Amino acid sequence: MRIACLGGGPAGLYFAISMKRRDPSHEIVVVERNRPDDTFGWGVVLSDETLDNLARNDAASAERIREHFAYWDDIVVIHQGVKTVSTGHGFCGIGRRRLLILLQQRARELGVELRFETPIESDDIETYRREFDLVIAADGINSKTRERYREHFKPDIDTRACKFVWLGTHQTFNDAFTFIFERTEHGWVWAHAYQFDADTATFIVECSEATWCKFGFGEMTQQESIAVCERIFARHLDGHSLMSNARHIRGSAWINFPRVLCERWSYKNVVLMGDAAATAHFSIGSGTKLALESAIALADYLHSEPSMEDAFARYEEERRLEVLRLQSAARNSTEWFEQVERYLHLDPVQFNYSLLTRSQRISHENLRLRDPEWLASAECWFQEQAGNPGSNRAPMFAPFELRGLKLLNRVVVSPMAQYKAVDGCPTDWHFVHYAERAKGGAGLVYIEMTCVSPEGRITPGCTGFYAPEHEAAWKRLCDFVHAETPAKLCAQIGHSGPKGSTQLGWEEMDAPLPDGNWPVMAASEVPWSLRNQVPKAMDRDDMDRVREQFVAAARMADRADFDMLEIHAAHGYLLSSFISPLTNRRDDEYGGSLDNRMRYPLEVFHAVREAWPDDKPISMRISANDWVGEEGVTPAEAVEIARRLKAAGVDICDVSAGQTSTRAQPVYGRMFQTPFSDRIRNETGMATIAVGNIYDVDHVNSILMAGRADLVCLARPHLADPYWTLHAAVRLGDREVTWPKPYLAGRDQLYRLAERNEGLI
Questions:
Q1: Using CB atoms within 10 A of its CB, is residue 567 exposed (0-12), middle (13-18) or buried (19+)?
Q2: Which of 3, 224, 284, 638 could bond 28 through an S-S bridge, CB–CB 3.0 to 4.6 Å?
Q3: Is 573 one of the annotated active-site residues of the chain?
Q4: Which of 14, 128, 267, 573 is catalytic?
Q5: For the residues 365-375, what does the mean pLDDT come to?
């Protein structure tokens, strides 16, 4: 094949090397607009895994690269004047200029033609496409090739919020990847610094656009900008200056990072590679890794697949998955830095943990493998903050208090509808279901949303708090749980609103009953779907009556001896229908502005709070994202909702999301709703409960230790395993959990099996 690689960065050079290694008869030319020793970055970071991949692909160049690596194990975080060091992270860096020179040398050895100082204009690209069998568009983040065939590649470019400038320094930071956070007269400014050769380090300075504007960086020359950065970080630079190698750029050289993802990576005989195809934010250091590994993959497929078209298809299919994984981690990391001022109030211990786990690629137990000593000290800190000094148990086993409620640990059994009630009355099914989970070790057990009236039920199988027999059945459960377990019980009360009179959960969810439907009501005449009833828009009499039904239900829950109460104001049910602009179309004092939309839910809360004992806490569950963009509740508005709840006296916010509209387009994934809890907790100071696809011990401990929530709800794991918390303790080697006395023999066997790595769980 005759191959043109447009762009002489790592992607283009390494693809040329990889192809020549597989078949020396390929005629390959690399075209680069800059000189051989020009480079406008400083150091690049690679992992041991990537180095191993390079060694398998081309041992000669891998060995030369390895000889020039700077290695470091530590991450240092400097925050509030405190220097926190954690180890075991295993990074290696090399100067970008050095890497390019080594790859150029190897490419020449293999017979690749290198053409430097050769500009590539838009019209030239079509000429290359006609004259060569294959064109690799490795022309960088501002790819002209991608732009030339934009309608085919369909790039999605997301310009991120923060401003950054890429600098270098001869302060090497003692072989540690170092993050420095400095508060200035214009706001917070932070640096990402890492060594890449014997006497040089990359030094990336970053800040919010607001801070950047206040400094006036946009109007400065590069030297003026550098001088300001040197002043900000003077006590960390140890007398060393900062340096730029972007003299070709006019102005101060600050930019916003563009996240690039293309719908397609190939067009005819042109293939995108490296930053031209996809970018990953520098805060996770994976851009060069993506480029090199993509080069290897495409070279493989071009020699293993029956046609070039098949090779392109496989390249795109398999590499896209890896790119999306890294971009997901990069997005989490990017957003953490974009919102870092949300976390800067945290204690240095918790701030360090939050930073280390920001991408969700590093978990609690992964940190224990990397640096068991530091993590143990962090766990001790967490326990001490929880009022349990001297303990080094995992965060999930820290106590928690709200008003007079004292929980043994932070694990919560989520409210999960059972659809087994008879005329609103819980049955033996409910008794066994909830009693088993209370015996299973969780600190708090929710009952399902229990309705305040017959017409407030979601389905005919939903439980209620409106008849004497309901109270008796719930009292039986509470008495058993309090007598036999250390768990506490929370009663979640609600009204179905427009989603009422529907089928059981295992039938057709949210669909009307085939017959026997009862009338429904809501904030406005907005049906859940075209198939569902049009609800009556509540008038003042309806609002007064339902408010008093909530009060009566709360009093019944108290008489039954529940320890905590939650008012359900999420998921499109009645109170949620007032909060969301998707379902609240009122033009009176209960519609329009957020204050108006919150008016009735807060009326209900205040009435319930007055009726509920002062020493027992009340939570409210909200949907923190309608998943329809600006038309509905957004995460930003959810913060304002939580502020109003906190000001009203709500003790804790149960942060869920969605289920408010059939138009919703949720973005699923593990812990996918935790960011909403994180934002509310750290922007309002309100205690929160995290929910949503949380299923692993690591998830629970990571969420708590990073300060993303105060309690963690698990739903499906508790359906599959009522003893999830006790079994989690066995996996962690924690022997302080309380097992039911009749089960002690089973406990002992589990611990013995776990010690021999023969666990049954």
A1: buried
A2: 3
A3: yes
A4: 573
A5: 96
